[in-house]
Amino acid sequence: MLEIKDLHAGIEGKEILKGISLTVNAGEVHAIMGPNGSGKSTLSKVLAGHPQYEVTGGSIAYEANFKKLELTGMEPDQRAREGIFLAFQYPVEIPGVSSSVFLRAAFNAICRHQGAEEMDPIDFDKYVREKMKLLQMDDKFLDRPVNVDFSGGEKKRNEILQMAVLNPRLAVLDETDSGLDIDSMKIVAEGVNKLRRKDNAVIVITHYQRLLNYIQPDFVHILYDGKIVRSEGRELALEVENRGYDWLIKR
Amino acid sequence: MSETIKQKELQDNKLAGDYRYGFHTVIEEDKAPKGLNEDIVCLISAKKKEPEWMLEWRLKAFRHWRQMQEPAWPNFEYGPIDYQDIYYYSAPKQKKENPKNLAEVDEELLKTFDRLGIPLTEQKRLTGVAVDAVFDSISVGTTHQGELAKHGIIFCSMSEAVAHHPQLVRKYLGSVVPYTDNFFASLNSAVFSDGSFCYIPRGVRCPLELSTYFRINAEDTGQFERTLIVAEDSSYVSYLEGCTAPMRDTNQLHAAVVELVALDNAEIKYSTVQNWYSGDKEGRGGIYNFVTKRGACRGVNSKISWTQVEAGSAITWKYPSVILQGNNSVGKFYSVALTNNHMSADTGTKMVHIGKNTKSTIVSKGISSDFAHNSYRGLVKIMPTADGARNFSQCDSMLVGNHCSANTFPYIEVKNNTAVLEHEASTSKINAEQMFYLRSRGLDLEESVSLIINGFCKDVFKELPLEFSVEAVKLLEMKLEGSVG
Fold first, then answer.
1. In what order do the strands lie in the sheet with A2-11?
2. Measured between CA atoms, how close is B438 to chain A, in angstroms?
3. What percent of chain A has pLDDT over 90?
């Protein structure tokens, strides 16, 4: 589904990703861990196509819906319509725009692109409320402006709700656990687990292994100074929890 | 349509870029000589076959204006206006002089309004909206007059009103904005050409939206329309105003006056979508828009609300205000002012509380992009008599890009300590992160900008009549296209 080869990327002339290669197949969950400043968030933004980040080398091949695409050079909205989703570490406030209007606009933009029929407001309302149950979200949420005056936990739940509504092929969760109390984290993780299917994949970016107790990854990669320094199975996350990152770096 | 006209139109459209009203109608105009003096004032009055009292009033205004100075306090700069280099009267020559009904109106004029999306003829005209169409210095026609007359509603051009309803005009004209009010209002009082007059009798709820469409066409011509709306006891009217002008390299002056009078329990809703030509990308040309709009809530429980979407003009100087005289009267001001390229706007409102328990609400949204300057200037004044007065003000500015500016100048004068005032203000930027967030959910650039702008302006757009609010959204989207990204 996703094949990253020797990816170099940075911001304002400063190279942050220094040659990353990673293959993600449908049905898999990959965790990317690493200390602060290792390039985790940069990787997520580069995958989603943030315009301020520049790809200086390498390629990102993506395959979904029987289409092969090279992601570098594609606009963020094109990527989203092809099934890529980024759950933001810091979700952005959009004042005056109700969550229901926003969600439906996004949902329909993706439907239009994929040749599916758009949903009218009534059907969409039913559809969203189903998904909201999954994340135990309050009914009033739909009328509230997107992320405005949301608590940290609400913002993160809202990201996963969007993921549930937009039904992506490849979801990248950027530090979705940061700022969440344990109960909220369980809800969010359960939400993600229910969305796991054979034909989609998830990349979980996290600082701590705590979240990985709930969203169990098939592979764990350690990112350090813009490179993947180690890739193993789930047990690597536990080892990192016990020993920290230093032993991986100072080899 | 002949080939040459087609080509001309193509060329016009190309030049116009995003201003699709920038075309110019080729029609012979009957013009007064350039410049302003007592003879010109007399000539305008004579052209309109006005009674003596009207001419007297104009002359008094003119003599007063000559003593006045152009205000220097607005927060923008503009080249000097040469008041002697302007045509103060320019009327399209029609085959039939003084057409009695719309069927007799010159075809070129009807075509012009068709093209502006304001069809006037019986077959095509808009249902539910009565239109007074003003072209340069004259009104070319008013639709639905018969239907309105059944309810006793008078809706006609100001010239017609002076001729046919002199007692009403004498009673109310200048009663809210006197001819001594300010430099531009005095100028308007001396030379005003057409505009609309509406009179809603006691207890009548006007069944149609009333509207005036202002079109400047002739070159080097000023437009000085004057509108007067009187709502008698327990009546209601909703009035809409739209404006456009051709694209020219030189600046043109527009100095209008609007007066509203609401008596006991009456309500007037006044909505404007202003889209005068705003100049090109380098800031050449465009309309100088100096407008005095004021409403008087004279009666108890009366209500006046101003809703404006100001998206055009090189310069906008305008403060639609409400004098809250009647006890329990309510004044509202909802504004979206968009400036891009080199446009400047200094706009806001005045709410003057005189009566007891009077309430006012101010919601102002300024959007500035490119090299534009956008200022909110507002006054809330609570007089000693205004026990229990309340005001809520909210002034938000949004900046798009790094070269534009936004300012807020809220003035508050309180002379009664039972008053309660609240003021909120904010300045924000459409930032790359918001855009990225929306786009990462599948929304394209235009959809994302439109969602953000709509959200920002929501509190104002919801006050507009539905069709108008759709237009307003489109207008802002078009104006901001290419500014964000």
1. A14-24, A2-11, A53-64, A67-70
2. 8
3. 70
Residue B84 at interface with chain A, using a CB cutoff of 8 Å? no
B457 interfaces chain A, CB cutoff of 8 Å: yes
Place of tokens 């306090």: B73
Residue of chain B nearest A44, judged by CA positions: B440
**Nearest CB to A105: which of B437, B451, B456?**
B451
Give the residue with greater pLDDT, B77 vs B303.
Answer: B303
Q: Is residue B427 part of a domain?
A: yes
Domain hosting residue B428, numbered range: 18-480
The 3-class secondary structure across B180-214, one letter per residue, is CCCHHHHHHHHHCCCCEEEEECCCCECCCEEEEEE
Tokens of B314: 């090189």
Task: Give strand pairing partners of B138.
Answer: B135
State the complex-level ipTM: 0.95
Contact B243, B109 (CB under 8 A): no
The enclosing H or E element of B272 equals strand B267-274
The number of folded domains in chain A is 1
CATH number, domain with residue A109: 3.40.50.300
Domain coverage including residue A196 = 2-249
Q: State the Cα–Cα distance between residues B473 and B483, nearest whole angstrom.
A: 16
Helices (H), chain A: 40-48, 76-81, 99-114, 121-134, 152-166, 182-194, 235-243, 246-249
Q: Is the Cβ of B79 closer than 8 Å to some Cβ of chain A?
A: no
Average pLDDT over residues B139-159: 87
pLDDT in tens, A118-170: 998 899 999 999 999 988 888 889 999 999 999 888 999 999 999 999 999 99
